[in-house]
Design goal:
- The protein is an alpha/beta fold.
- The chain has a single domain (about 5-160), classed as Rossmann fold, CATH 3.40.50.
- It is built from six helices and three strands.
- Helix 5 links the parallel strand 2 (about 85-90) and strand 3 (about 110-120).
- The longest helix has 19 residues, at about 130-150.
- The chain starts with a helix and ends in a 15-residue tail after the last helix.
- One of its GO terms (molecular function) is triacylglycerol lipase activity.
- It comes from Pseudoxanthomonas broegbernensis.
Amino acid sequence: MSTRRLRAKEKPPTCQLLYYPAVDNRAVPSMRTDYASSRMFGDGFGLDYGFTEYVLARVFPGLDLEHSEISPFFSKSIAQLPPTLIAASGFDPLRDSNRAYAKRLRESGVRTWYREYPTLTHGFFQLTAITEAADAAATETALLLGELIRGAESPSPETTVPRTR
């Protein structure tokens, strides 16, 4: 959720569901340095370095990629964000930044659930008709989102890293 939206005092969402989110959008060399998953899965796993660099250059031309509107990981304060469910993939260059963001959310007092699907790649949500693991991940996250929306007590956030099917 945008910090600008919070400042504008618009009604915040009840919760947020983030599938393999790009929360740290710095240039690829920084990502390779800071996150092992970026080094391991940056080529051949669906979200390749070349594509990432292409998208960043076109979507954010000349902008500071560490700005909080582009990379929410670098927001000064995230404590006011709604309960958050992050669904990450094991074979994803974004995996470690997703883990770090979930940790930061928790440390800021945001109710956070992190689900990591170790056998899946970035973009698995688009593979639900092809692979049973992707379908199971989509089903599980949809059910948990429903619980969050209804306000039901969900499993303890601390018990959700990593998750396998």
